[in-house]
Amino acid sequence: MRHVLVVKPCCLGDALMATPVLRALRTTYPDMTIDIAVTAWAAPAFDGHPAVRRLVPYPERPTLPRFFRLAQRLRAERYDAALGLDRSPWVGLLLWASGIPVRAGLAAGWRGLLYTHRVPPRLGRHESEQYLAVAARLGAVPRGLEPEFIVPEPIARAIRERVRHFRRPLVVIHPGGAINPGSRLLAKRWPPERFALVADRLTQVWGSTIILVGVATDRDATASVLAHARTPLIDWTDQLSWSELAALLAEADLFIGNDTGAGHLAAAVGTPTVSIFGPTSPLLYRPLGPKSVVIAPPASWELREPRDLRRLSTIADRLDISQVHVDQVVEAASRLLQGEQGTA
């Protein structure tokens, strides 16, 4: 197996949770070439990864004609094997239609019928572990669960220069997220006025410099934080590329945010991270690493399988993210700023 395709369509956080698979394949099979089929939205998670030869565009909106056109292109590549790191039946169909002889993937019931090597998801297992179980069917040996992202050195230098005179500790807050192509799950956002209170407390106690970050769809959240905060904050919303955000996080002393890709990116560059979860399961989706802390309603830790959050009626009050209190986040942030390690 010298030529392998990995399929991980979406989204940024999920894509970063798949990077331990790339590390396992790269270290187990140093001569293997790896291509990744990914949507344009999630592609930045794999930019510059040393294990990746190239990115293959995956349709943002799946239709049979689009998939069979892609399958025709993939068939010409003559891949030896493929990994389907998504529960969608479209992935198994694509790999089968591409004529790839060895097809390993997450086999949730009938969705995995077209794989040659089926890996049933295990309840309560983190997504990165689920993905590594698929890679293990190709003999890949895990080399840790932490995500990884390589910051280009010119971008790292530019960001270091940009923050050089900022007062420390430098804290990055991402109050938005939860908006992806085809989904808008605002129940995953902690109230912005609480982020403002956290920013005020960290500024008062630690003398922190607070930078707000996000993309264009986060402007309402960051604007609300700015409106409620009593201390001056720096707003870099929609001013950073993904690699620039990674460089900023690598320079920061702390990251605080919701259950979003930015939290996984912070963990990937080794930044102490406080992630606030609500209706999603931290057991399955939390950023992994020795400096990552999750604050969530106790009931969230009982969720042992993925839930469709597009059905808001399935979100019980006991999973409401508003159950997370400001004091909890400030205490976790203070522990990390004092140098204490978090829990993965």
Provide a descriptive summary of the structure in words.
The structure is a single chain. By secondary structure, the protein is an alpha/beta fold. It contains twelve helices and 14 strands. It has helices at residues 12-17, 19-28, 64-77, 89-97, 127-136, 153-163, 192-206, 219-228, 242-251, 261-268, 282-285, 326-337, and strands spanning 3-7, 33-38, 52-57, 81-84, 102-106, 117-119, 170-174, 179-180, 183-184, 209-212, 234-235, 254-258, 273-276, 292-295. Strands 3-2-1-4-5-6 form a six-stranded parallel beta sheet. Strand 8 (179-180) and strand 9 form a beta hairpin. It is globular and about 60 Å long. The relative contact order is 0.12. The mean pLDDT is 93.
Search tags:
17% strand; alpha/beta; 12 helices; 6-stranded parallel beta sheet; 344 residues
How many strand segments?
Answer: 14
| Sheet with the most strands: spatial strand order | 3-2-1-4-5-6
Mean pLDDT: 93
Number of helices: 12
Low-pLDDT stretches are none
Overall 3D shape: globular
Rg for CA atoms: 20 Å
Order of helices and strands: EHHEEHEHEEHHEEEHEHEHEHEHEH
Quaternary state of the chains: single chain
* Span of the ends, CA to CA: 33 Å
Beta-strand content bin: 15-25%
The major sheet is characterized as: 6 strands, parallel
As a percent range, the share of helical residues equals 25-40%
Judged by helices, strands and strand pairing, the structural class is: alpha/beta
